[in-house]
Fold Torsin-3A.
Amino acid sequence: PRGTSRPWEGTDEPGSAWAWPGFQRLQEQLRAAGALSKRYWTLFSCQVWPDDCDEDEEAAARPLGWRLSLLGQRYLDLLTTWYCSFQDCCPGGDCRISNNFTGLEWDLNVRLHGQHLVRQLVLRTVRGYLETPQPDKALALSFHGWSGTGKNFVARMLVENLYRDGLMSDCVRMFIATFHFPHRKYVDLYKEQLMGQIRETQQLCHQTLFIFDEAEKLHPGLLEVLEPHLERRAPEGHRAEFTWTIFLFLSNLRGDIINEVVLKLLKAGWSREEITMEHLEPHLQAEIVETTDNGFGHSRLVKENLIDSFIPFLPLEYRHVRLCARDAFLSQELLYTEETLDEIAQMMVYVPKEEQLFSSQGCKSISQRINYFLS
């Protein structure tokens, strides 16, 4: 009788809540999740108690035939983390390190706009270093360019693709000069703290990443702390403890020089994509060394060529700002029109005064400008 039926019965009746397609998909996901849990447990038990593992259980532990997209990524991550806590299942033996170079390449090609030099250099340099069996020094990259051109954005791409937990990873530390080291009179204390944090992080992870934002504002004494890691030969006493270490320095320093060179080349008839490192790096490095109002340019890191690469971020043009606006809409799953993208791009200030070519803020504040259209 209908009055005594159970809620999971009669699911095929028209209008029944149980006939809702979303519920049917949920049922499929739960069944798939149950199958995954059973197979994980079977594989785990076979590893721990191999004598009790029969052929049927081994067969049950074979690769799954259903699509992973059936499961929510969070659930899959939870099960994977649980399984990896018992069984070494990650490349290199450390589940905190992902080194997803395919994902990094995709991010640089699809999400980063107007920075063809960055795309070429970052992926090749970082991948080459991390795939070196026994590197003889840490890798040091210095990002330079105007605010809003993507320096922090690319640093975040690296963190997200190299480490499973991103900025929350035990293997990653980020320092902002004016926030973490604000008072010059405490520089000796800061040096001790920085040395301790680097040493502690390297003890926790065999692959570490340190990001220094506003690098031009770092006290020279703090930069000295990094020298032993960046010299070609590691100190004898630390050789056995050497890890793959990347230092990223993010700075607005001499972004104006980058803009001047780019503007000159564009006026001479070069296309943006034809600009190479040969056009920019000599000017950039020379100007950094000659700058008198910061410690970064006068540090041994720069003067003794301990920085592996100075990577220029080019000024962004109108078309790049439109792409940033489009991405911001997509990231919030909001609808947009081409006219809306134009309106947002036109709200930015462009320089120089005559050419009106480069966005003075890059893509910074795009998200806030989108809110203007939603209110």
Observations:
- The first strand starts at residue 139 and ends at 144.
- The domain at 101-231+242-314 is CATH 3.40.50.300 (Rossmann fold).
- Residues 195 and 225 are 7 Å apart (CA to CA).
